[in-house]
Amino acid sequence: AMLRLRFLTWDVKDTLLRLQRPVGESYAAEARAHGIRVQPEALTRSFREAYGAQSRLFPNYGQGRGLSSQQWWVDVVKQTFRLSGVHEEGVITLMAENLYHDFCSAGNWEVLPGAGETLSQCCQRGFRMGVVSNFDNRLEKILSQCNLRHHFEFVLTSEETGFAKPDGRIFQKALRLGGVPPEQVAHVGDDYTRDYRAARAMGMHGFLLRAAGQSAEPEVPPEHVLPTLSHLLTLIEK
């Protein structure tokens, strides 16, 4: 292969795993279990608002601000219900803690098409692999439950490292753990700024997974774009 790649780093959310259903549907189901009717669409809108506000106030799950990521998420969920017109604080707290734990399990996640096969084929071809993800510390457990954890030498989260992509320091840590120079590593992800551009700024190679109908980033050459994960090995081995 022209690319002398030895190591691949992977984003997770919307690259290897995605939510099985919109957040609002999971939240509405939890509310129904407590006899509360809320529209899933309203909850999804409220979630976006609550998540955005919390991310601006306390970036990277409240790292360095004395918040645990669990508290960070519980606050987001509680605020989501309040914004949707639910105000019984005791029930809100109970629902938030239930949902925090629900999202630890495989039940809310599904493996993207081609992900398992692609990771297995990369291992068979001798590529070493790790995860670099803007995620909280539930990620190891989620990957294990979705039967993907064994492919990776390490799982680096923004919570654990204290740096979130596109900050280059999370990639630096991955390069140190892998013990490989950046030019022998490619990062695979679905976000132009956090994944593709950030990895390239570190001297790594980048592949951008682009869902159908997503607008093209003009700076990404076609040989770096993955219409599906199954295209990866073809592009690497060109």
From TrEMBL:
Where on the tree of life does the source sit, at the highest rank?
A: Eukaryota
Q: Which GO terms describe its cellular component?
A: nucleus
Entry-linked InterPro entries: HAD-like_hydrolase_domain, HAD-like_sf, HAD-SF_hydro_IA, HAD-SF_hydro_IA_REG-2-like, HAD-SF_hydro_IA_REG-2-like_cap, HAD_sf
Q: Sorted alphabetically, which Pfam families does this protein's record hold?
A: Hydrolase (PF00702)
Instruction: Tell me where the transmembrane regions lie.
Output: none
Q: Which family does it belong to?
A: Belongs to the HAD-like hydrolase superfamily.
Name of the protein in question: Haloacid dehalogenase-like hydrolase domain-containing protein 3
Per the UniProt entry, what species is this protein from, by scientific name? Rissa tridactyla (Black-legged kittiwake)
Q: Corresponding gene?
A: Hdhd3
